[in-house]
Specification:
- This protein is an alpha+beta fold.
- It has three domains: 113 residues, Roll (DNA Polymerase III, Chain A, domain 2), CATH 3.10.150.10; 122 residues, DNA Polymerase III, subunit A, domain 2 (DNA Polymerase III, Chain A, domain 2), CATH 3.10.150.10; 114 residues, DNA Polymerase III, subunit A, domain 2 (DNA Polymerase III, Chain A, domain 2), CATH 3.10.150.
- The chain is 17% helix and 43% strand.
- The protein has six helices and 26 strands.
Length: 373
């Protein structure tokens, strides 16, 4: 194999694929990327056996061929090569020679035939979403993904369709303490799709890839066990992931419908207030107490080691006064998702889940479980 490629193109492509590769691998070839030269470009692939990213890049190919080489090493080399340089890649005798300007590198390679590829099988459900919509769906939900490995079925975003007033596609994530849900009109082709859980790592890698393709559409193909995202059409980037084999809980049961106490407040002011009083909170006392009275909220944090902090915020509130506690970090995470001048917080009592959203029409909805304070 012999090819020449612009350093910027190589670097951009490697930055996409190398983050899939785990730093520590018991199987040596999983530390490598597969590079295939054919026609007028290179095809680069990385995998961790659960997730696979493939990208095409333009290059001038002198001779076809394929090889695998260390992902992180090649990325680090590309990063340090001079701007604007042309990079020559050539393989011979289980080595890859890399030349750019006056720099020369020779890296060990492993045979292409040993490189594992995820077999997609049949992906019967197929639809498109604008990249912007997909990115918003991820941003509004992924912070609530659980990191507890024992509850592996919560370690991703749950995608499912349902027929309500009109057909919708919903994305949900929860860690048992908070729930985030995003709803959009069901795209053409998504009817009858199986309920799927997209793993946290696949979500993170997809969100990174979307950053450069915000004006395009993303093709999504899936079955009950695999999902594939194609960005940039033919010759673009393709991310394929296994899905989490588990059953996501019926989260709709925890979304409160009868919360009759409504608090309206500026989310930024509220976020900053919670952040300030939480300064003295410790790991054990992450709770912030909200005292609700007519048109005001009093935030209090008490820590046996660090003393107390209080702050009063003006708000719209007309129901009877009471006190409720929340985990300050979880509350801030949710408030950080609300990009408007007011947020609606629907409360019932000190022990009941609380509903938080921008307004009735908002596609995003959040539920937060209270804490004892």
């Amino acid at each position: 194999m012999k090819a020449t490629i612009e350093r910027a193109t190589l670097l951009r492509c490697l930055s996409h694929v190398q983050s899939v590769v785990e730093r520590r691998n018991t199987i040596p070839i999983l530390s490598n990327v597969l590079i295939e030269a054919e026609g007028d470009g290179l095809r680069v692939m990385a995998t961790d056996l659960d997730l696979q990213v493939v990208e095409h890049m333009e290059a001038s190919v002198e001779s076809d061929g394929s090889v695998t080489v260390s992902a992180h090493l090649l990325f680090d080399i590309a990063r340090k090569l001079p701007d604007g340089s042309q990079v020559s890649l050539e393989t011979a005798d289980n080595r890859m020679a890399i030349k750019a300007g006056r720099s020369r590198f020779s890296l060990p390679t492993l045979p292409r035939d040993d490189f594992p590829v995820i077999v997609e099988g049949d992906l019967p459900t197929s639809f498109e979403l604008p990249a912007k919509t997909l990115a918003e769906m991820i941003d509004r939900t992924r912070f609530a993904i659980s990191t507890e490995e024992t509850r592996y079925y919560l370690n991703g975003i749950f995608l499912h369709v349902s027929d309500e007033d009109q057909p919708v596609l919903k994305a949900a994530a929860t860690d048992g303490h908070r729930l985030a849900r995003f709803t959009l009109a069901r795209p053409d082709g998504a009817e009858g799709m199986p309920d799927v859980i997209v793993p946290r790592k696949a979500v993170a890698e997809l969100r990174k890839l979307l950053e450069e393709k915000m004006d395009a559409n993303v093709q999504i193909d899936l079955s009950a066990s695999k999902i594939r995202f194609t960005l940039g059409g033919e010759g673009g980037m393709v991310l394929t992931s296994k899905l989490i084999d588990g059953t996501f809980p019926d989260y709709s049961r925890v979304i409160p419908t009868g919360n009759d106490k409504l608090l309206k407040i500026d989310p930024r002011t509220f976020h900053e207030g919670v952040d300030r009083v939480a300064t003295i909170a410790t790991e054990k006392t992450r709770a912030v107490k909200m005292g609700l009275d007519k048109d005001k909220v009093t935030l209090t944090v008490t820590s046996p080691d660090n003393g107390t902090a209080t702050e009063e915020l003006s708000a719209e509130y007309g129901a009877e006064g009471f006190e409720i506690g929340f985990n300050a970090g979880y509350l801030k995470d949710i408030l950080g998702q609300i990009d408007s001048d007011t947020v609606e917080i629907h409360l019932a009592d000190a022990g009941a889940p609380t509903l938080i959203r921008k307004d009735d029409d908002s596609p995003a909805l959040y539920v937060l479980m209270p804490m004892r304070v």
